[in-house]
Automatic annotation (TrEMBL), chain A:
Protein name as it appears in the record: Beta-ketoacyl synthase-like N-terminal domain-containing protein
InterPro entries the UniProt entry points to: Ketoacyl_synth_N, Thiolase-like
Classification of source organism: Bacteria, Pseudomonadati, Pseudomonadota, Gammaproteobacteria, Lysobacterales
Matching SUPFAM superfamilies: Thiolase-like (SSF53901)
Pfam families: Ketoacyl-synt_2
Organism: Noviluteimonas caseinilytica
Length: 275, 395
């Protein structure tokens, strides 16, 4: 099968109790959670009033996206982006469905336009002033893996660098009985074509078979979120492991091989470029 | 980009199943819109509804995927030999070498709405979904892609794109990249969207729904008509003698507003320019442009001005939403099919229901049908979040 490669220039991460990539890396190495982590991400890309009003899913996606760009030293306006989410915003789906039963003519216009799956991608491009292409995809438990493939093929097609964001939130109301996801989770990568001495590189192979059950600390910590299938990659990046396997659809998986940049030989340096 | 062959394509709309029904409606200037007869609480508006879905149950083996959207996905897949063409491609390339990339805006959310309308006490006494609707896959955006993957037996990359109304245009770009990168030899692309309460009452809340059949680019236009549709195209690497090809795509963001277009049409212009550049043609080479043209006052003005800045007056550009309604996430595939019909039959649709020209719109906007052979056709699809995609097809 074909292999695809990219440099990981920047990483963003947020989950309940682990509000950034540094605390996630420390947690993977030591098992300790930071004291007094904020309950909700506060994406600086949005104006203060929008920051408060934004759905949680949008807030987490924008928070990790900006963190990844900052670590990469890339301007958000310059990057084409791929936003992957299993469910979009289930809280809004719950609101829309309940309101349609109770009083359909009272649907809130803002809630409706926030209900689109590409809400996070839209707010990102608006907030960043980014006219580059963005997309919003879903592939159930393979959402992040398919997002990674899409980002890599865009690099293959000639883009210099890409932003990839995976996120999901909690199910609320009766929907929670069929959509099994809780907490809030987001992860982002800035990926580029050119190798860099100070940044790790990933190589992806698409294989047949089922990905092994994830046992990393992040996977155990945030495993009940629908975006958890991305966590083996973030666990590997945090711990310095060289291989991660992601579920990529029924009977398909991505095997990701990680190599360090020439100036970051020590495994614990994985992912700390521009930290 | 290297051209991709399109040897099979189809659409099912309010005009009927398959592309002959669509072509005949366009040729005869006979639309498919009707007074809203969908659901219990009926807004005073017109809709583009596909007949017969209520009686078109899925085959028994797919009964756990039952919902209006998957029914339309299945019905559309049976038209114009598409299902057989997919099976033939599977035999030729292998199931794992064919990608499924489909676009939708609301996927099966109609089934979620139905579940909320029929909540019953669950095991813990709390309101829960009725037993027949407790299927996790039906209540998630990937419902469409997962169902079509299962129904076709394809096992390559499988993605549901949900960028609102640009969804099933962007699938062409994504599939082209997958094939170009060597991850697939062919791709089943397309999209399906069905009428549901979220969309009807959501667009109504935004004040964008007309009480009359929509009138794209008419001076008195006052909003859109919502519709439902499904369609597909099978993309393969092109040979020397392929009659119909995808030649270019352009994608951009407005960076302006979640539900209003950029006032100068910045994103639209970027998407159209990029598609022309990727196809390696000049604006003057395009013989037909299917506009996004939703018939809302703002959208049509902005799009017409972006088109006028880019194209000569000789371009024949039209919106076909008067025939089908705005089919949201399926608009990209439906209107790409119309662009391909224009290439193959030399039929350039005008605009249905519109009579009074708007001074804000340029000479490119054509109300009447025309017939002449053309070599290149373009399709514009623009979505919420300022998400834009333009495609170039050639014959």
């Amino acid at each position: 099968m074909s292999a695809l490669t990219a440099t990981i220039e920047g990483i963003g991460f947020w989950s309940n109790g682990l509000p950034d990539w540094d605390s996630a890396r420390a947690f993977v190495r030591t098992g300790t959670l930071p004291d007094a982590a904020p309950a909700r991400p506060s994406p600086e890309l949005l104006a203060p009033n929008e920051r408060r009003r934004a759905p949680e899913t949008v807030a987490v996606a924008l928070d990790v996206a900006l963190a990844a760009c900052t670590r990469a030293g890339r301007a958000p306006a310059d990057l084409p982006s791929v936003f992957a989410s299993t469910h979009g915003d289930l809280g809004i789906t719950d609101y829309m469905s309940a309101t349609l039963v109770d009083n359909p003519r009272s649907v809130s216009p803002t809630r409706f336009h926030n209900s689109v799956h590409n809400a996070a991608a839209g707010y990102w491009t608006i907030g960043a002033g980014c006219t580059q292409a963005t997309t919003a995809i879903s592939a159930y438990a393979a959402s992040f893996a398919e997002g990674l493939v899409e980002a890599l093929v865009q690099l293959d097609a000639g883009e210099d660098a890409m932003l990839l964001v995976g996120y999901d939130g909690a199910a609320t109301g009766p929907l929670a009985s069929v959509a099994k996801t809780s907490g809030l989770l987001g992860g982002a990568l800035v990926l580029s074509r050119a190798p860099r001495n100070d940044a790790p590189r990933l190589r992806v192979e698409i294989l047949e078979g089922n990905a092994p059950v994830a046992t990393g600390r992040l996977a155990m910590h945030a495993g009940r979120n629908a975006m958890a299938p991305m966590l083996p990659l973030f666990d590997a990046l945090a711990s310095g492991e060289s291989v991660a396997t992601l579920h990529a659809g029924p009977g398909r998986m991505l095997r990701i091989t990680l190599t360090q940049g020439a100036t970051m030989a020590a495994p614990e340096a994985a992912g700390v470029a521009h930290a | 980009m290297p051209p991709l062959a399109i040897r099979h394509y189809t659409a099912t709309t309010a005009l009927g199943p398959g592309r002959d029904a669509l072509l005949a409606g366009l040729r005869e200037r006979r639309g498919g819109l009707r007074r809203n007869d969908f659901g219990n609480d009926r807004l005073d508006c017109w809709i583009g509804r596909v007949d017969g879905l209520e009686d078109a149950a899925l085959p028994l083996e797919f009964s756990d995927a039952e919902c209006r959207n998957n029914r339309l996905a299945w019905l559309a897949l049976q038209q114009d030999g598409m299902f057989g063409a997919v099976q033939a491609a599977k035999a030729k390339y292998g199931a794992s070498r064919i990608a499924v990339v489909l676009g939708t805006s609301t996927s099966s959310i109609g089934a979620t709405e139905e579940a909320y309308a029929r909540l019953e006490p669950g095991d813990d006494g709390q309101p829960a979904f009725p037993r027949d609707l407790r299927q996790p896959m039906v209540h998630t955006p990937h419902s469409l892609g997962a169902f079509v993957q299962r129904a076709t037996g394809l096992t390559g990359p499988c993605v549901t794109v949900a960028t609102a109304c640009s969804s099933s245009a962007k699938v062409f770009a994504q599939a082209a990249r997958l094939i170009h990168a060597g991850l697939a030899d062919a791709a089943l692309v397309g999209g399906v969207d069905t009428l549901c309460g979220s969309v009807l009452f959501g667009f109504n809340a935004l004040g964008l729904v007309s009480q009359a059949p929509c009138k794209p680019f008419d001076a008195t236009r006052d909003g859109l008509s919502l519709g439902e549709a499904g369609g597909y195209a099978l993309l393969e690497r092109a040979g020397d003698d392929d009659a119909l090809t995808l030649r270019g795509y352009g994608e951009s963001s407005d960076a302006h507003h979640m539900s209003a277009p950029h006032p100068e049409g910045l994103g639209a212009r970027l998407a159209m320019s990029q598609a022309l550049a990727r196809a390696g043609i000049d604006a003057a080479d395009v013989g037909y442009l299917n506009l996004h043209g939703t018939a809302t006052p703002a959208n049509d003005t902005v799009e017409a001005q972006a088109v006028a800045r880019l194209f000569p007056d000789t371009l024949h550009a039209s919106s076909t939403k008067g025939w089908t309604g705005h089919t949201l996430g399926a608009a990209g595939i439906v209107e790409s099919v119309i662009a391909m019909l224009a290439l193959q039959h030399g039929l350039l649709p005008g605009i249905l229901n519109s009579a009074e020209r708007d001074a804000a719109c340029g000479a490119q906007i054509r109300f009447d049908n025309a017939e002449r052979p053309i070599r290149y056709a373009m399709n514009n699809s623009f979505g919420f979040g300022g998400n834009n995609c333009s495609l170039v097809f050639a014959a």
